Amino acid sequence: MKFFDEAIIHIKAGNGGDGCISFHRAKFIPKGGPDGGNGGKGGNIYFISNNNINNLNNFYRKKNYISENGLKGQNYQRTGKNGKNLIIYVPIGTSIIDTKKKLILISLKRDKQKFLVARGGKGGLGNINFKSSINRTPYKSTKGCLGQKKKIKLDFILKADISVLGLPNVGKSTFIRKISSANTKIGDYFFTTTKPILGIIKNKLNSSPISILDVPSIIKKSSIGKGLGLNFIKHFKYCNLLLHFIDISIIKNNIGISNAIDIINSEIKKYNKKILLKEQWLILNKIDLINNQNNFILHINKILKKYKFIKKFYFISSKKNIGIEILCMDILKYLLNKNL
After folding, report:
1. How much is the average pLDDT of 291-312?
2. Whole-angstrom distance, CA of residue 155 vs CA of residue 165
3. Fold observed for domain 6-156
4. Considering only CA atoms, which of 199, 200, 279, 268 is closest in space to residue 242?
5. 63, 28 in Cβ contact below 8 A?
6. Contact 181, 175 (CB under 8 A)
7. Where are the domains of the chain?
8. Measured distance CA(82)–CA(120) in Å, rounded
9. Average pLDDT over residues 227-239
10. Fold match between 6-156 and 162-338?
């Protein structure tokens, strides 16, 4: 199933019911006077965030959302029934944007957060409201007001503590599947991961779980739409740490490592240079395929001197479970100190 993190929808709150023109009629009350009731109020439209939703796929086909109209007022001064409110559920991390005003109305950041996006119209007045000493038989009522109508953009951003990035086939998905609950796809071909996937890591240092985000691979010219593009980079917004994966088995020297770092970070910079302010760790994967690990250490230390945003590097093998435990413990300690 394709992953949708943006959607355009049209919403229309219910109209108010019209007021009623009516006169009381009873056997022994020939001049009972006006008794037309007011119209019912139109239904409102609300957005509510729901922790069990993690995409905007429900909005791919359904684009129009309309709440009920209020009913017309009735005789005997009876008010018309109010229209039912409409509730639209969205994932936590969804921004509600008024496309006409180009304004973010709200960003829903916690579970069960409720927001009134469109107000239903007021009901019209029945002729009971126009009775006076001068006019005892008013033939006047008002129509119900129209409900608010808006074109809304929904923009969803996954909230993750850690995000992984890298060129194709560097072992990101294997690593995430190894340490978390994420059901990521693994294969020996480009773009195994075609949509952002969130996994949960059990935290051994405290009770709070850690979320880790797997995203499609970045290639040269991703910023201009090559490959799977870069729109998924927006999901790095809330993360505290970026793990930059490199397949060390196909890199023969420090120049190859620099090229891999430059490709990824130059593409990210073109999309949003603020992402590079986040701390990055270099994860040199598939170390089990390298005969002499020590030959790389000197080269890597030289490389990191020119990349100030890369603070640490690790040798691991996701397949052989080498270095995974040390890396995970360092990640947990880093996040724990970050949140103090």
Report:
1. 78
2. 22
3. Spo0b-associated Gtp-binding Protein; Chain: A, (2.70.210)
4. 279
5. no
6. no
7. 6-156, 162-338
8. 10
9. 80
10. no
